């Protein structure tokens, strides 16, 4: 009985410390400030109207909550979850578009090059000619609206660094030392 009690106590202490650390981190984040990203209602409505499908009610609610959070001057801490094909990418695209309209850059970091390419293709389909978007992984790089076939990875990084590209999709290559976002 004493052994079981000691084991339960050790498990409790371990979970308590994890919860305590998590709460301390949340409190620290609350002290931080973030830039306010104004909701560009007119442009966002045009973007939504240009989509080849109608948003579901849940997509509208999730996007609205995120866009409202972005208007606050505190960092957003939110998890957007859903099944494959449930519309997480279009919700993220609406937030990315508003950030770009406010002069900020956004980065979508994916765990694999295949997934990064899929998101890049999806986002370029959603944005059309509205936004300059690029793909940056260790072996793949592309700018959607740039017609220069001889673009180099170095040139893309340069355009990211000087803020010419507002929306970047990639892998952990986005964390390379030579990639220095201007206004992320």
Describe the structure.
The chain has 184 residues and is an alpha/beta fold. The chain contains six helices and four strands; from the N terminus they run H-H-H-H-E-H-E-E-H-E. It has helices spanning 2-31, 41-50, 57-70, 88-101, 113-127, 153-161, and strands at 106-109, 133-136, 141-143, 167-170. A four-stranded mixed β-sheet has the order 1-4-2-3, with helices on both faces. The longest helix is centred in the N-terminal third of the chain and has 30 residues, at 2-31. It is globular, with a radius of gyration of 20 Å.
Keywords:
6 helices; globular; 4-stranded mixed beta sheet; 4 strands; alpha/beta; single chain; 184 residues
Order of strands in the sheet with most strands: 1-4-2-3
Oligomer: single chain
What structural class do the secondary elements suggest?
alpha/beta
Global morphology? globular
Strand content: 5-15%
Strands, count: 4
Overall average residue pLDDT: 89
Kindly, what is the distance between the CA atoms of the first and last residues, rounded to a whole number of angstroms? 56 Å
- Helix and strand string, N-terminal first? HHHHEHEEHE
CA-based gyration radius: 20 Å
Largest sheet: 4 strands, mixed
Helix content: 40-55%
Low-confidence stretches: none
Number of helices: 6
